[in-house]
Every structure is written in structure tokens, then in C-alpha cells.
Amino acid sequence: MSSAEISALPTPAAIQEWDPGAVSAASLERGDLVLWTTPERLLDLCRFLKEKRQFTRLVAVTCIDRYPVEPRFEVVYLLHSIPNNERLRVKAAVSSAEAVLPSVCGVWTGANWYEREVYDMFGVRFDGHPDLRRILMPDYWQGHPLRKDFPVHGHKYSYKDE
User: Fold this and answer.
1) CA distances, 114 to each of 13, 76, 125 (Å)
2) pLDDT at residue 40 above 60?
């Protein structure tokens, strides 16, 4: 599909009408619409998608580490509009130096644990998250094990008692 055809789809057309700068790129990947946004526009775009386009279901939040390429991290939000039977991926890229995005917990409360997992595994912080702490790794763990530069020869850890 060409970019003009993608822009004519209902969701990209509605976003374009609402805020022409909210989406920086759009494509179809494996049959799913993928919209790229900036960290500054992410929260407003998510609110719009939920309130105006009925993407009431947050399926997952995950992350891709593109190390050594910058921006290093792609945070991916998988959304589903049950009434419209439409699936959507929203992506935002962040650099390793500024690995911070706004939390979408205020939009979808289910984002809480997903964002904690991305923080724990990749080190991407979510500004405004109500309880951003490790969820899978123990509290004494150092580093983020799904980063591509995490040592493969063994894990880093430090016990609090030492």
C-alpha cells in the first residue's frame, strides 16, 4: 500500500484531521497498521485513539533494542479496537541517553505492569508511572538483561548485604 492509501484509512485520516503532526510515519507491516510518533506526542495520541477511535484494549507494551543504532529503543504499543475490529501498533523511538517516555497508565490502567516490564528488562523509564520498580528481576539486580549490550558471559548482580 502506498502512503496515500494508508493516509486514507479511517484511523490515519482521523488522526490527520485531529492533529497533522501527531504521526511522523505510517506503514502496514504484516497486515497491521503501524504509526510512528514522538515521545512528546505519544500521550495525546494514545488518549485520542482510546477516546475517539475506540482503541479501548491495550494488548501489550514491548520494546526493541536497536543497539548500536540511535535512537536505540523502539517502544511498541499494541492496541485493539473491539467495536471496529481493528488492530494498531504505535511506536515511539527513544535514544539511550534519553530513554524516557510518558506513562500511558492514565489512559489504560493495564499499562502498569507492561511498562514495569519494559523498564526492568530494557531500562526505559516511564515518566508519571505510579509505581515504576522492577517486576521480574530481584531488587538487587544490576542492569537490564534484554539490552543487547548486557554481558552474555554472565549476569551482573549485587546483594544488598555486601
Assistant:
1) 29, 11, 12
2) yes
